[in-house]
# Entry
Amino acid sequence: MKLSTAAIFLSFLTTSAAFSVHNNAANFGVVRTTTSSSTTALNMADVSVAMIKELREATGAGMMDCKKALIEADGDAEAAADELRKKGLAKADKKSSRVAAEGRISIGKSSEGRTVMVEINCETDFVAKDANFLGFCEKVAGAAAASNVDDDANIEGLMSSDIDGSTIEEVRTAMVAKIGENIQVRRMMGRGSANTVTGSYVHMNKIGVLVELEGGDEELAQDVAMHVAAMNPPYATKDDVPEADLEKERAFLLEQVKDSGKPAEIAEKMVEGRLRKFLEEKCLVSQTYVKTNDKTVGELLKQGGASIVGFTRMAVGEGIEKKVDDFAAEVAAMAKGN
# Structure
């Protein structure tokens, strides 16, 4: 006898709920680790970033809370997770497991000429536009610039920085509880010094670029940053192209002309010409300046008395796999199968 769609739907909900409860009970606060149960007492230096990250992902507790719990538990991740539960610090565990691929790029500038770009993620575009979230992003970027912490390896140090009398991690945890979404300070990069000129550009809060120059002024650097945001060049100059990449492209081009019937010396010239074209397209300074289309970026810099030191570009959510659930489609598929 065939079941109705409604009956299948109710059966699916009941089964899913039971499975969810079982899973939560079994997995809440549990971290798989290769740490031996006979681990001796640890000090702060013995707690690795990987251990902290694993515990944080499992419990949703703050980074510094995870580190402290691991130290107190002598490196036993499961015991540390249990302790976090007892203290009520793992309350955001369900939120922390959700994908946070939206958000914004924020810029902070220091008085020493350093500019820092920070990516802060949330789950939905709606929260990415929320005033509380935007204010948090600006404060994090300002703290990053002020503390001279400006690369991914120092995220932990940034999270312990102070804003409004609390650490960034404490403020982040409170926002997760208040807004109801997973919020993460994902990465940051900095450029500039007292001896260089730095310009920044953020497009629609989603794409951020820092450009560092020798000579010129901030307006020129910002113009170049806008070009980088639009054209996304892989390299600044041909000197920045790894030799392995050049050889790979040269081999590819040789394969293309191999069967052309041209003499070897002619074929080699064809390859070199195409390789130059490849570098012109991939390198910032040889690209046509997108704002005017009448000169290259290199010529623009020369007119402004500047040369490129380098650039950094990041886009919100790049590299994060977004999970899309279609519950209705799953139920319909089950109904069709029965």
About this structure: Residues 1-41 have pLDDT under 50 and may be disordered. The radius of gyration is 26 Å.
